[in-house]
Each structure stands twice: as C-alpha cells, then as structure tokens.
Amino acid sequence: MRGRAEEDILLEDEQDDDSGQEDEQEEEESSREADQEEIDNFMDAFLSHEAKPVFLPEFGKFKGEKADRFKLRTKGGDEVNLPTERTDFNTLFTFKSKNWDSQVRTNPQGPHTISHIFTSQLFEEAVKDMNGLGTGLQAFFEKQVPSPEEIAAIFIREGITLEGERDEEKGEGLKVLVNNQNPSFFYTRFFQHYKELYHAIQEALESDELDDALFLNLRAILDLHPYATYSWKGKKPGNKIAKSSTAGKNEHRVPDLLSLGDAISHIDENIDDGLAKGSFVDGEAYLAFVRNRLEMVYTEEEALEILRNSEKYGKYFSSDDDDDE
After folding, report:
1. The domain containing residue 60 runs over which residues?
2. Alpha carbons 191 and 177: distance in angstroms, whole number
3. Containing H/E element for 206?
4. Does residue 153 form part of some domain?
5. Taking the model in full, what pTM does it have?
6. In which band, very low, low, confident or very high, does the pLDDT at 3 lie, cut at 50, 70 and 90?
7. Measuring CA to CA, which residue among 73, 64, 70 is closest to residue 85?
8. Torsion angle in degrees (nearest 10) through CA of 309, 311, 314, 315
9. How many domains does the chain have?
10. Confidence band for 50, pLDDT divided at 50, 70 and 90
C-alpha cells in the first residue's frame, strides 16, 4: 500500500506533466497563429497590387496532327477533351523571365523538375481511371493543387518576401532586385493568375457542367506549382540557365505507364533533381511534391519504389529513412 507522501509526489508529477503539455500546446498554437498571420499579410499585399492580367488558358483551333486536344473516355464512361503533350503552359519560371509589365506567353517554360511530357501522361492516366468525374476530379484537385494560401506558404519558406528575395549566399535578409524592379511585381502577376485559375477550377467543379476548359485549366495549374520548375529565383533566370537544362533531355512517354518496371526504367529520363541544383530551401516539401506527383497514378508504396530506384532520387528515399518514419 502506498503511503500518503508517495501519493502526493505522484500527483504532483502528473500535474507537472499536464502543465508541460498545456505549455507545448500553447506554443504550437501561438506558432500556427504567427504563421497564418504572415501568410495573410503576404496574400493581402500581393493581391492589393495592380498587375497586368494574364489570360486563362484556351484551346486553339488546330485540327489533325496539329490538334492541341484529344478525346479520352474515362472508366466511368465520360468522354472528355484533354490537352495534348504538345500544349505548353506558363510556369513560375515564365513569369520571372518576363518584364513585369509585358505580355506573359508560354516561353520560356524553364527547366521542369518532372518533365512536361511525363506530367501530361500521368494526368491523362489519372483522368482516364476515374469512375465518376465529379467526385474523382474533386479528390484529384484537392490532392494535387495547392490553394493560394498554400502557395503563399511555399513562397515564404523559399525566401520570397514582399520586398524581394533573400540571397542565402550573401546573408540573411539581403534583398535581390530583378531587372532593377522589385520582384514583388513578378510574383504579384504569378500569384494573381494562380488565384484566378484556382478559383475558375473550383467553380467548375462545384457546377454540374464539366467542360473542356476545366481539364485544360487543371493541366495548366499543375505546371504553375513553384516546385514544378527550378532555378526561377534571382535576376533574369532566363539568361542564367544553361540551354542543356531547358532543351529536351531524352524525355519521352513511358511505354507502359502502369508497369512499375517501365516506370522505374524511364524515371530518370523524365525527372530532374531540383535539390541538387540548389534551387529550393525546403527540401522536405520539395520531395513531398515529387512523390505526390507520382501518386497521380501510383500508390504511395509504388511511388516510393520508383524513387528509390532512381539514380537522381534514390539517395533521398532510402528504405532506412522510410522505416524511421
């Protein structure tokens, strides 16, 4: 039987544990509120700027071999028009390579982390596999497309500020001007265009009519993810990138996308290592993006197996690391 003194000590220990947990919870809540305030301030500032508009993507009027769309029937029997792999889309690199007040067209797209062709192939297969476009597309949208608030959080983690860009090599807080203009103008145009495209997709998904523009916009917004291209930070990124990084690098469609062996054999032709290029600060978030893109088609386990067998990404996704999770 425990003595009274021993029971009092145990009670005090439990109270100390409860107090410690409450302090940790308060600190976490305070940190979340501070992060959210930073995101809100970031969005308010960028959305309050007046920027030259960027028009939403449109299908062209090409026919035959030049057609920029093709019909695809989903597993659920819906017939849809999807953009072909030859259809180019704007990227964050595109916005940063233009004069901030010029018309934004789809070139240069910059070096993709996951090739344009492979992303299109994954997208086609994901749409084709849907049993019901309404619920299937909504789930796809929520998993693959960050909200504008999430894009703001990525910018903040990557050192993008309202005043400019942090230059990590020359010291924390140093701001880099782009083309003698404040970079906020470049990011403002990108951010406002992303928000418009995101809400256009959101409204289409909430309606009963799923038209061709929805699939065009969905494919387009995949290329706008900040991690979809690399080397977009700093001055005139279009001038500093080697042509070998933006030219075709033997990338092509995987012969049998649903064959794990084929996917593994061709993964390094269709993927680049943005971390090895020193382009991103948040390596964990970047790797999560790469893995998530593969999960358009593959299960979590299959995506991991593909990346572990990649010469470029195997070092980031070792079996030992996964066992520690």
Report:
1. 32-324
2. 18
3. helix 184-206
4. yes
5. 0.83
6. low
7. 70
8. 160
9. 1
10. confident
Residue range 300-324: mean pLDDT, rounded: 85
C-alpha 138/C-alpha 66 separation (Å) is 30
Question: Reduced to 3 states, what is the DSSP secondary structure of residue 215?
Answer: helix
Nearest to 137 by CA among 219, 62, 196, 57: 219
**Per-residue pLDDT reduced to its tens digit, 189-200:** 888 899 999 999
Q: Is residue 12 part of a domain?
A: no
> CA 109, CA 93: separation in Å to the nearest integer?
6
Tell me the C-alpha distance between 13 and 10, whole Å.
5
Half-sphere exposure of residue 233: CA atoms within 13 angstroms, side-chain side: 23
List C-alpha distances in Å: 201 to 26, 126, 141, 206, 220.
37, 17, 9, 9, 11
Amino acid at 7: E
Residue type present at position 323: D
Phi-psi region of 304 (alpha: psi -120 to 50; beta: other; left: phi over 0): alpha
Model pLDDT for residues 199-238, shown as the tens digit of each residue: 999 999 998 777 889 999 999 999 999 999 998 876 655 5
* Relative orientation angle of helices 133-144 and 184-206, to the nearest 10 degrees: 160
Residue 218 located in a structural domain: yes
* 3-state secondary structure string across 14-31: HHHHHHHHHHHHHHHHHH
Q: State pLDDT tens for residues 252-298.
A: 889 999 999 999 999 999 999 999 888 898 999 999 999 999 999 99
DSSP secondary structure string, 181-192?
A: B-THHHHHHHHH
Is 171 within a domain? yes
